[in-house]
Give the backbone structure.
Amino acid sequence: SAVISQKPSRDICQRGTSLTIQCQVDSQVTMMFWYRQQPGQSLTLIATANQGSEATYESGFVIDKFPISRPNLTFSTLTVSNMSPEDSSIYLCSVEDGIGYGYTFGSGTRLTVV
Amino acid sequence: RKEVEQDPGPFNVPEGATVAFNCTYSNSASQSFFWYRQDCRKEPKLLMSVYSSGNEDGRFTAQLNRASQYISLLIRDSKLSDSATYLCTGGSQGNLIFGKGTKLSVKP
């Protein structure tokens, strides 16, 4: 399965600021996914990042709040913009390990907004 | 709305017990199903794939029932190290929907 390096692992940020999360994959992948996991909740898909095109956002998530970059087939960033305490969550990137083989996740970024 | 539902638990069981989790999904077009394990403060990790024919890996057995739209996970001879949250997921390529997870606590 793919190996994903995600950073930062955690951060405490002031409200109104932005944080950029990075994910590096050890192989080329077509799609990378960004999830949010709030305390006691499951994984909610924020957006799908494709190389060479704009990310596709799920209902409730917008590009201005969560801009995504996908400059090549092994790397992606997610920015959480103009943060508020409600953005405190764990953010995870993931890739698909081939059709029917499930997803591999990065180690996650634990974000606390104060 | 396409959802995956599972009992949040917690399931508190003694070592050696057999425990079963069920999960229902609403999207009949879903093609791929998986069980993930998530330890506290860790990322989810793939436990096993789920097939209609059943899938067994040691003490773990997963089953898919397409007619009733549910998947199951059976853990036999529970170990302390099995304590975790188990997430079921189903969907199609690039579109997996995750349940909220079932918390399992195995006690000595």
Observations:
- The two ends of chain B are 41 Å apart (CA to CA).
